[in-house]
Design a protein that fits this description.
Order of helices and strands of chain A: HHHHHHHHHHHHHHHH
Strand content of chain B: under 5%
Shape of chain B: flat
Number of helices of chain B: 13
Distance between the termini of chain B: 59 Å
Helix content of chain A: 55-70%
Oligomer: heterodimer
Radius of gyration of chain A: 24 Å
Strand content of chain A: under 5%
Largest interface: A-B, 95 and 91 residues
Number of strands of chain B: 0
Distance between the termini of chain A: 35 Å
Structural class of chain A: mainly alpha
Largest sheet of chain B: none
Helix content of chain B: over 70%
Chain lengths: 287, 304
């Protein structure tokens, strides 16, 4: 068997490796506290001389960051709540109810798992633009902008989520058949059975999907880039790229803003790590 | 008497049928919200995309041009470069994330001290947005004051222009992506390793198999489904690389980092050549469909 000496050597190497992994985050936070003078010094400055949050206040004045954070928060919250509701009832229906064409419909819905959004970004953009009666459109979907540059346009394409349906179905398939029979004996309708029995029993899967969906939604960049064009609709991810477009990038301000948009998810991740990791592991192993 | 029994039977049958119909209806009702979104934002778009790829749609006109877009595509040097770059990016990112992910998982599987901390550290980049990650690495790769060149300077090595250098831009993007994705692969491999029953190793060691033989005869074969899953999903994800390209290099310098999705985005939303971009999307879809079909065909065997 391995000696303790060998084992502690391995531990030490892994500790160093993990610290190397954390260097970019450390750099981010340290840079956010530096002055431009320290950043442009001929010798690399590791620890800034004066610790002040000045850069953070300055960075947040570049543009309307209260609006950007509000947008991202709103989009993430609505996407998570609506998609989870829709996904879980669909997953329940596919797993526990019998109806004509159920298996075929489920199989077709798996296409949504295979098609990455990048493949369909052009038609989805055009469909949003031609939503009838929205954004100045007439009933044929002509004349206006539809859901382009609106919250609906940012949220609607992300609500379906075949992946969530797939996970919920797998989860509900494991429930014993007796559960349904007992509910029927008690005179519960199908919908009530779902709401009063299945939902309370599926907290872990809900937590997992909240973690997955919230991360995905908060971090999304490509879609807001395509579907919005006004400052009022910008998400935090999109707003961050404004700093990069300046001729002379002020790295301290950019890193302050980066720290602020990374912070919310990082805190949630550290507090509820179990759900982030378990969720990914179960989807990885069983998916 | 028998007549009324028959009537009662019929009524019961009808009631049963009614219950069934009711269950049918509730079943459809519960999947309807999901299915409407699926139809409008996934299934119909595929058909629309196919149609667009046969037109010269530019947001104002859409004339049917048949296979013209696909013919142009074969002689489009941007497309060729993008396809090559996408393959290079995918190959190296996948190779390093899978290889390093497995190695790290093997080491971490020994119940080391501080495992939760190590796992968190490696997993952090995975939950951080690609935009934020790209900004941090943009700063690391900054030629005159960035961390990478400051480090090279310290070692007395000539500075590299990183993202501004045709040769180094792609490796720089790949290095960043490996850093971002390796923890995810490690966590999944770790779970795979922990699900291998211990008695298999005991049996192997009774048979006189050393650590190396145990790895090749027990660990690796039993990890095949995990590897397969990571390989397929990694292949598809890496093939769709766009965000880090758009932010770090914008496809440059001299198109050395432009990729398939980056070309689709540029053609569609900068040049408004929607028809041509739709044809590019169909190529991407074909490649992904091919990967998925291979997955179905050989994936189900390895799960046995």
């Amino acid at each position: 068997m391995e000696t303790t000496k060998y084992r502690s050597a391995v531990s030490a190497v892994m500790l160093i490796l993990s610290l190397v992994m954390l260097i970019p985050f450390g750099l981010m936070v340290l840079t956010s506290l530096k002055t431009m003078g320290e950043i442009q010094a001929p010798q690399f400055v590791f620890i800034p001389q004066h610790l002040s949050l000045d850069n953070y206040f300055q960075a947040m004045q570049r543009g309307n960051w209260a609006q950007y954070f509000g947008n991202s928060l709103f989009i993430t919250a609505v996407t998570v709540v609506v998609s989870l509701l829709i996904n879980s009832v669909a997953g329940y229906s596919f797993a526990r109810l019998r109806f004509k064409g159920r298996d075929l419909l489920f199989l077709i819905s798996l296409i949504g798992l295979m098609i990455p959004p990048q493949v369909t970004m052009i038609p989805v953009f055009l469909i949003l633009k031609h939503i009838p009666f929205a954004g100045g459109n007439d009933w044929t979907g002509q004349g206006g902008l539809g859901w382009i540059n609106s919250y609906m346009g940012l949220i609607a394409p992300y609500v379906a989520g075949s992946f969530g349906v797939f996970l919920f179905r797998q989860f509900y398939l494991n429930f014993p058949k007796d559960l349904d029979d007992a509910a029927k004996m008690d005179g519960l309708s199908t919908v009530k059975t779902y709401w009063q029995i299945y939902v309370p029993l599926s907290k872990p899967i809900f937590a997992t999907l909240v973690a997955l969906k919230a991360t995905q939604s908060w971090n999304e960049y490509t879609w807001p880039l395509i579907v919005t064009n006004s400052d009022a609709m910008k998400t935090v991810q999109l707003a961050l790229t404004l700093f990069r477009d300046e001729t002379q990038v002020q790295w301290n301000l950019l890193m302050s803003a980066t720290t602020l948009i990374v912070l919310p998810l990082t805190i949630i991740f550290l507090l509820a790590q179990k759900y982030f990791i378990e969720g990914i592991v179960t989807t990885g192993i069983k998916g | 008497m028998s007549e009324s029994l028959a009537v009662a039977k019929m009524a019961a049958g009808r009631r049963k049928k009614a219950v069934r119909l009711d269950e049918d209806r509730i079943g459809y009702m519960l999947i309807a919200p999901f299915y409407i979104f699926l139809l409008v934002f996934v299934l119909i778009p595929i058909a629309v995309n196919l149609y667009l790829s046969f037109t010269n749609y530019d947001l104002t006109n859409a004339d049917w041009v048949g296979l013209k877009n696909y013919r142009i595509l074969f002689s489009d040097s941007f497309f060729h470069v993008a396809l090559k770059n996408t393959f290079v990016y995918t190959f190296f990112t996948l190779l390093f994330t899978l290889g390093l992910g497995l190695m790290l998982a093997l080491v971490l599987n020994r119940k080391l001290a501080g495992l939760p901390f190590l796992r968190t550290a490696f997993f952090m980049p995975h939950i951080t947005s690609m935009v934020a990650v790209s900004m941090i690495w943009l700063w690391i790769y900054e030629p005159s004051h960035g961390l990478a060149n400051s480090f090279l300077d310290l070692l007395g090595i000539r500075k590299i222009q990183w993202l501004f250098d045709e040769t180094w831009a792609m490796p720089a993007v790949i290095l960043m992506s490996v850093w971002k994705f390796v923890g995810y692969n490690m966590v999944i491999y770790l779970a795979g390793l922990q699900s291998i029953p211990r008695h298999l190793y005991e049996a192997a060691s009774v048979d006189g198999a050393g650590a190396g033989r145990q790895f090749f005869n027990v660990t690796l074969p039993l990890l095949t489904p995990v590897t397969f899953f990571l390989f397929i999903t990694g292949l598809i994800n890496n093939f769709n690389v766009f965000e880090q390209i758009q932010i770090l290099t914008g496809g440059g310098p001299m198109n050395s980092t432009t990729t398939l999705v980056h070309q689709i985005y540029n053609r569609a939303f900068n040049d408004f050549q929607m028809g041509y971009a739709a044809a590019l999307s169909m190529v991407l879809l074909a490649i992904i469909a091919f990967i998925t079909i291979v997955n179905f065909k050989y994936g189900s065997q390895s799960h046995e």
